[in-house]
Amino acid sequence: MKKTHLLNFILIVLFFISTNLVAQKENWCGQAEAQKKLYLEDPSLLEQKAKHEEFVREFLKTYDRNTKDTYVIPVVIHVLHDYGPENISKETVDAMIDQLNADFTGTNDDIDDVIPEFEDIIGNTNLVFRLAKIDPDGNCTDGIDRHHTPNVYNIESGSTLPHTTVPNWNPTKYLNIWTVHEIAGGVLAWSYIPPVYSYLDGIVSEYSNIGTPGEMRHTISHETGHWLSLWHPWADNSNSPGLAVNCNYDDLVDDTPNTIGIAWHCNLYQNSCGSLDNVQNIMDYTTCDHMFTQGQANRMIALLNSSTNGRNNLWTASNLIATGTNDGYNGDPCAPIAEFTFDNETICEGNTAIFTDMSWNGEVTVYNWTFEGGNPATSDVATVEVT
Description:
By secondary structure, the protein is of the alpha/beta class. The protein is 28% helix and 13% strand.
């Protein structure tokens, strides 16, 4: 009898743990609630949205999906950090760009896992994402804009804090992505669907979603889908998948079946609204997100041809030249921006402090530290312990 009670207790505990984990992950994208709040604050955005949707409908009437035009999108990553792990490396950012390029051309390494029922509608946008090489002032950049700030923890979903801490580069010229340490409430990232205020135009994400393998590696592709006018498969009803009422909402894409959505699991043959769900869609909350549909690809291309939020300027030849993302661009290596940290702000005579180089934007080839009254008085290495 005691063993039975113990087993029941363990099962109950495991149930509550698993339920809590699902609850934390169900609403990992904060787009819908942030969007609703924005519409309530400014109903005129709904009028702009209606005009944009009319443009999309007219564009798609004559759009040839076999057109192989390439759209190059300049990208800047605003890394907000407090000198912790959220100060992600250039290699991590490069891995994120590689994932974006694979996901938006249907060449990601898990695309072969798409079930046969949806293989024929795997989308290819012909989008190419490239880190900017020239910043808005005409200076050399590696596409990563780093800022030390304490405003990186427990950020509210939809908060303007990242945008006001580090204003975006002109969003008609760059895709802006802000990274922070943590977003509150289990949300991993968010982006607004155009039309949106210019200063809010871009993506905010926890740093752990950037360039990492595993289940979260498509997170930035999901948010970029929003940035390119894609809704969740259950449209703009809520951030919450799994609700029966979601069947009544449509995402304005013909080849994505209506669905209640997937709450952090992967049932490949879920039929929730009278037809087979596209469970593996990157715009759902699934654990097996692998694909966009061709209909979604067409809708994103429609936005890139629209003046809404200036998306039709991003990929123009003149903008690619201005941002250093044109084919064959071969600028000089960027000069690094000097920055360092130290482990003790105040010490007593005879004690030590460690100075660590944190320079960015270019490769450091020579160090020339000077410590007046210190031992050593000078140094030519990256990290120095000084007495």
